[in-house]
Amino acid sequence: MIAVIDFGSQYTQLIARRIRECGVYSEIISCHGSASVLVGKDVEGIVLSGGPGSVYEIDIENYRRFFSLGVPVLGICYGMQLAAQLFGGKVRKSKSREYGLAHLTHRKDPLFAGIPKRVHVWMSHGDTVVRVPRGARVIAYTENTAVAAFRLRGFYGLQFHPEVRHTRHGRRIISNFVIKVCHARRTWSARRFVEDEINRIREMVGNEKAICGISGGVDSTVAATIAARALGKNLISVFVDNGVLRMNEREEVRASLSPVMNLRVIDARDRFLSSLANVKDAERKRKVIGREFIKIFEAEANRIGNVKYLVQGTLYPDVIESGQGIGPADVIKSHHNVGGLPKRMKLKIIEPLRMLFKDEVRSIGRYLGLPAHYIERKPFPGPGLAVRIVGVVNKGRLETLRQADQILLEEAHKLRNYGSIWQIFAVLLPLGSVGVMGDRRTYDSVCAIRAVRSDDGMTADWVRLPHNFLNRVSRRIVNEVKGINRVVFDITSKPPATIEWE
Q: How far apart, in whole angstroms, are the C-alpha atoms of residue 340 and residue 322?
């Protein structure tokens, strides 16, 4: 395995994922943990992640332990600065910070084997290495950074982020480290992951029962399928209609999943909408929804009896944005099934997919033999339309958004590139807009259209939708949906914006 030490980077799990793409198992360890947790795990290499801190502001001696295992180490951004400072180099605040694309020139080294001499890389740093340790060799530089990469015996340091898709040949750099430098064995696969999770769930639950929260999307369906193979009839899947679903979603989920799993459908629309009354803040919405879900699951567990576990389809981007990762990461927004969970719960959480990204889950879904329409379904947030209505959520605004969103999806399915779009949806804004309909003044709501492409949900770029498509959707929404008289198109990438508006 390759161990990834998490210093709080938003991209830590991307590193682990890139390593798994090489066919090598990877595990994330907190920077606050002891190196002893790696003893006996057949570690073939270590990667130190980036992070939000500065190495010259803290006592870094405690991290020397991660260099004591006698295996190659790769430091990325903060990880590179940490090694430089530990071994006698010097790190200072940059005079010219680098954020975004930079032109990297590298010198011949196994780490850069098969990569053009000049290549685009993704930078994101406010500190820089101004002096490398004695005996180190600088192996890459950019226009603004004299030390963009250096090598010191078995250590490699990179100031840029090879794990993000914006770095050209970044996967090759990681593969070179894992395969050529560490000589790691290719033993990780979807089959191996599923087998390990089935065994882990069986060992954890034993002869007791568990319930699984089902949304109808790929994440919860894959999680339920893995748990069902582990627990059989002792797994009961529960779908909750929380009142903030898309049009006809409850009926579609019941028809699709009832034949293939032990499914119970609960109508809790009034309960959720009552709890959301007058709630405007996005974080508060997520926490209210997470709390109500847990109350319903706990009540269902009591009704069934002998249920102590709740299976969820939580993914790693949910964990990262909620600030619940392994390292010291910032909270971006609390996902209802992570940061939105109440502190005290009667049920123990099982999350088979917690360390995976959406495309990895889809690959596992294909391995499990799930229908294609489940695997390719667009992501839909657990808090549903509540986080696509900016401001107060009520029945009237929900019905308005449902109609607009349904029109958008009907037209989107006609696009040739629909399959390559990660998400496409409508957002209802808390804005009044003056318009004219039938020679009369109107003052109605504004609807925003959002469409993005992404590999994993961590970064995303807006889709250049055809003008005739936008024109057709805008006309239909304004003409067919009462209460909307203006449609706008969101052309912001992630970052700086998140995919969902709230």
A: 9
